[in-house]
Description:
Blueprint lengths: L12 E7 L10 H18 L1 E8 L3 E8 L4 H21 L11 E5 L2 H12 L19 H4 L12 H4 L5 H12 L5 H13 L36
Antiparallel strand pairs: 1-3, 1-4, 2-3
Amino acid sequence: xxxxxxxxxxxxxxxxxxxxxxxxxxxxxxxxxxxxxxxxxxxxxxxxxxxxxxxxxxxxxxxxxxxxxxxxxxxxxxxxxxxxxxxxxxxxxxxxxxxxxxxxxxxxxxxxxxxxxxxxxxxxxxxxxxxxxxxxxxxxxxxxxxxxxxxxxxxxxxxxxxxxxxxxxxxxxxxxxxxxxxxxxxxxxxxxxxxxxxxxxxxxxxxxxxxxxxxxxxxxxxxxxxxxxxxx
Length: 232
């Protein structure tokens, strides 16, 4: 069966998830987290991606990025995966794949969903009770986006900038927003869209055989998308 083509639209943000093979750990020690972030800092501008948020979990990675060219995201993730695989395999004296395969991604078409993805990513360690609050987890961008420790390679998303008139107000408003967890419906929408490669919040074709088109139900195949583009 052929793979579903990944939808990438320049200047439209993406939520990305890349998981370790069979759920195995992708980071062995603290130096591995630092090395991944150094690589992200290098490859993102090289291939034309703005990074808004990230979280490095023990066995997977979350990113919120905006590609500025059709192949930008694929190039960044390809080089990140290859470089990190060489590092971990060399450390463990093994060969073979480190990652599950292709990374998963979903378009983030609106400001609302951009902020939801920020919170989904940076609060990821809280949901499995690894930590009580995102500020207690070292390997995410929460410290930068909440104003605690600015990080030079991050680019604020326009949705984040709209939270306040200056960086201090933006960081304060965002930190307050993160104190309210996403509800179950919002979490489920982000997960399903990312796994299936759809735009977050877009109507999706239901499973099973399509219904016949009638005057009552209209065209059940028509999908409505409204993409919000960030400025270059």
